[in-house]
Amino acid sequence: LGRRAVEKGTLSTEAAQKERMLGSFLSGYVRSAFPYRASAQDPSVFFNGEDSSLAFVSAFSRAVGGRGMAKITVAWDGRQGSALTLEEEMPVRVFGAESSGGYRNRVVLYPAVDEFRVDYLSPDDTQDQWVERWDGAEKKTLPRAVRFRLRATGRPEREWVLPIMIKALIR
User: Fold this and answer.
1) In terms of C-beta density within 10 A (0-12 exposed, 13-18 middle, 19 or more buried), how is residue 152 classed?
2) What is the mean pLDDT of residues 134-141?
3) Distance CA 102, CA 88 (A)
4) What is the pLDDT of residues 10-38, one digit of tens each?
């Protein structure tokens, strides 16, 4: 094998490893999505899903060793070659609550993304219907699963379908 072939193989292997780690990282948060409500009287659930971003409350937080709830935001600004990011915020402050103090950390999940799309699986058991947006305040529930599609610069498209486990437990 020539030096160029080895270098190309090494870069491809590193990119595939990054993508596997991204899937694993997202999986931990999404599978632990929690139907967070501002109060027991309010049926609205905090889960805001768009086609290129997602904000929700997860019962899993990397900030404190996997314990505690955190508000998670995964976002891509839609510009080709820009980064996919994740922000974790503790304590959870949603529904217009003031956000001073606490812990907030933002990390780059993938540095150069050409396409990123998020879809949401309706909890209706009679049909598997994927939708582009999910408004927990309107729907008053979490989706059954979240599908991420990512195409990084110079890479084929990858897809992850991640079930929301609390939905599986309360069905």
Assistant:
1) buried
2) 93
3) 11
4) 556 787 788 888 888 899 899 999 999 88
